[in-house]
Design goal:
The chain has three helices and seven strands, in the order E-H-E-E-H-E-E-E-E-H. The protein is α+β, with helices and mostly antiparallel strands and 113 residues long. Strand 4 and strand 5 form a beta hairpin. The radius of gyration is 15 Å and the shape is globular. The protein starts with 6 loop residues before the first strand and ends with a helix.
Length: 113
């Protein structure tokens, strides 16, 4: 448990391990549960298109007190790269806390990374 009291579900850990070890998943998008108590898997995908991933993050929605708006998201992306010395992969952590979230959700998301 972190400073906010928000916990990570076992599904988050299992899905991350599948991405890291199995390499069958390209990215995972996580979100805060509607009751702000857990981080949950929103989507795990094998889609290799960066633009698809980016659109999902940029257009994420969340509801707060009956109103819908931009929603905070965390993601892990299995980045493949090429350098002069060869090819490689890295798991990249992405946190989207864009202005436009409800302030309470933004604070909860920020301290829950």
């Amino acid at each position: 448990m972190n400073k906010s009291g928000v916990t990570v579900t076992p599904e988050c850990v299992a899905t991350f391990n599948e991405l890291k070890l199995g390499k069958s998943i390209k990215y995972i998008i996580y979100k805060l549960s509607d009751d702000y108590t857990q981080i949950v898997v929103e989507e795990a995908s094998t889609d290799k298109e960066w633009e698809t991933f980016q659109n999902k993050i940029m257009n994420a929605k969340a509801s707060f007190k009956g109103k819908e708006g931009k929603g905070p998201r965390y993601a892990v992306y299995d980045l493949q790269y090429e350098l002069e010395g060869g090819e490689g992969t890295r798991c990249v952590w992405i946190q989207d806390l864009t202005v436009g979230f409800h302030l309470k959700r933004r604070r909860m998301a920020d301290v829950s990374e």
